[in-house]
Amino acid sequence: MAYQIDTYLKDFSSYIESAGVTSFYAEMLTVFINAFVFILLLAFLDKLLKKVIVEVFKVFSNKTKTSFDDFLILTNFPRYVGHIIPLAIFKWFFTELLVEYPTTLYWLLKVFDLYVILLILKIIRSLLRTSRDYFQTKEQFHDKPLQSYLQVTMLFLWGIGVFFFILEVFDQNAMDFVLQLGAASAVILLIFKDTILGFVASIQVSINDIVRIGDWITFSKYGADGTVTEINLATVKVQNWDMTYTTIPTYSLISDSFQNWRGMQESSGRRIKRAVYIKQNSVKFLTEDDLKELKRIQLVAPYIEHMEKEVVRSNRRHEVDQSIAINGLNQTNLGVFRKYIDAYLYENPAINKDLFLMVRHLPPTSQGIPIEVFCFSNDKRWENYEHIQADIFDHIIAAVPFFDLEIFEEPSSKDITSFLTQQQDLKG
Hints:
Helix content: 55-70%
Largest sheet: 5 strands, antiparallel
Oligomer: single chain
Low-confidence stretches: 1-6, 8-12
Strand content: 5-15%
Radius of gyration: 41 Å
Distance between the termini: 126 Å
Mean pLDDT: 80
Shape: elongated
């Protein structure tokens, strides 16, 4: 074949010389014309092969049950593969055509090698994107940061590709280039600091399972409070509850503190932790009449009866002077109220009894005595959780007067106006 091409080129050149063109220019025109015609034919062949290969892939993918080959088409894998045959023909033809022009052939083959490196990277990237899109259709991979894995892998591959690009362009020995690169490593680290930090963070986030796609996170520093929709090499994308988006640097997930609500979502309940503030001067010891009235409240009646027996037994044992309520053991309205809330929560079907449940008395403040409810709702869905929490505290607030207690509240303008009016009436 090489002999036939050589004979054809000599005949073509002789034909041009017969038209009065000098030998040198005849050779140049021969190479140029044949190269131009061949490139046009090769471009047509490349386009034809890509179309044929794509159509074959489509027919094949329609007959298979798996969707992997469908994603191969979407990521242009057949188009990239279609370049291989025309490239092989291109190299073979020009190697024969330019055999007498070694310098031109040298640079042409160098460009060819660079393009081959780029094509290989594109084919690998297409396969990786196909794998990402395919695995995203699988339920077990919905919460995995596949985009981050893809970017980390492609960053590594592009690094290798650039390495071979430089070796090819400058005809460098691989070992010599690595040694020279080591000397410039400090500058490279400075330039690519953010990329390196993002790369390290992506690996740590993935390995330690810090955040998954679909997690609800709260990151006060960046004003993020919502669901993680995307994790990549540089940023984490969060859709907030107001439907806005916040992007967070991936490295911040391991350098700063944030709240991940996944544990709550995976648990059997969602925590309710809220307090009502009772006026301190409304707390008092209960008299027999008070206790008799409170026994009408069914949830707390067994507790009052039990404590009455304990009070009598203790006071008799210690010979307590019961003419003054402060002596010995006596029940208070606040204590009975706490027990009422406790019993109410245990009777409430919306509360998970298998998880921690407590009603506690917190240290007094300038706003009163906090009586805090600490329990877990059965329903973790946000809207239902808020309804459950509201219903509980609606009931608790409405129940306070039945125990002769008062809820602390800052005076409003209406309260101040009423007070001043009363003072004026007294003076008048």
